[in-house]
Every structure is written in C-alpha cells, then in structure tokens.
UniProtKB/TrEMBL annotation:
Modified sites of kind 4-aspartylphosphate: D62
GO biological process, one term: phosphorelay signal transduction system
Entry protein name: Response regulator receiver domain-containing protein
Species of the source: Dyadobacter jiangsuensis
Keyword Phosphoprotein: yes
Length: 141
C-alpha cells in the first residue's frame, strides 16, 4: 500500500499549530494530502462526506477545541461505518498521564504525542507499526 491510500487530517483550533504540524509532516517526508480542520465537528463532517473513498485516514487530533473537542470526536466516530479506516494520533499540550491513558482506551487511537509536534515526532509517527506500508516510499533522512 502506498501513501495514495492515506489522507491526513490535522484537527486543531490553533491555526499556528496547524501550520507548524503541516510543515513538520512535509519536512519529515510525508507526501500525502493533508486536510486542515479547526474542530472535531469539521473533521467528522469531512469524514462523513468522504467515507466512500478507498482511503485510510490518519487523524492528528487535538483534545481541547471549541464546537467539538477531541473526546467528543472519539465518542462520535465510534458508531461510524468507516471507523476501521480511521487511525488517530492524539496531539495535546496536556501532560497528565491520565489523559494519555484515557486516549489509549479508544481502539482507533494509535499514539499520543505532546504539542507541538516536531520533525522527529512526525518521523516516529509515520514509522509506527500501525502505519507500516503507508509510508514505504518515503525516505527518512
């Protein structure tokens, strides 16, 4: 499987974080399309309207956002028919171990990272076992 089968959703209400994370993903060698969403509802709406695509969605999800926060997104996506095509990395400024533990109880959450992401963090994410195959043609420097 190549990265043609993967689309990345960056979900954060902070425009600077979205810009940084998008930039760091590209600098780490990620060539897939990224979609910017400013809250969980925008991400859910995007997934709802694109669920027919033969695509796996990697969602980098902030926790604290207006309209629909990360926890509400995780609850809402649980019943969606496309759930198996969604992999989630929680990206939060929260440092409490309880937040990470709570996030990892959701089946679709494959990782939990501190904000802001870095090029190195992005490389760790794309090199994770759960994403094996999607980034095979990406050369990590």
């Amino acid at each position: 499987m190549t990265n043609d089968g993967l689309k990345i959703l960056l979900v954060d209400d902070d425009k600077i974080m979205l810009f940084l994370h998008d930039t760091f993903l590209k600098r780490s060698g990620v060539l897939c399309d990224t979609v910017l969403c400013y809250n969980g509802q925008e991400a859910l709406d995007y997934l709802d309207s694109n669920q027919a695509m033969e695509t796996t969605f990697l969602v980098l999800l902030d926790i604290n956002m207006p309209v629909m926060n990360g926890w509400e997104f995780l609850g809402a996506i649980r019943d969606r028919p496309y759930l198996s095509k969604v992999l989630i990395v929680m990206v939060s400024s929260a440092t409490e171990e309880s937040e990470k533990s709570r996030a990892m109880t959701f089946r679709q959450v494959i990782d939990y990272q501190q904000k802001p992401l870095t090029v190195e963090t992005c490389r760790r994410i794309i090199g994770s076992e759960k994403l094996r195959g999607f980034f095979d043609n990406v050369i990590l420097g």
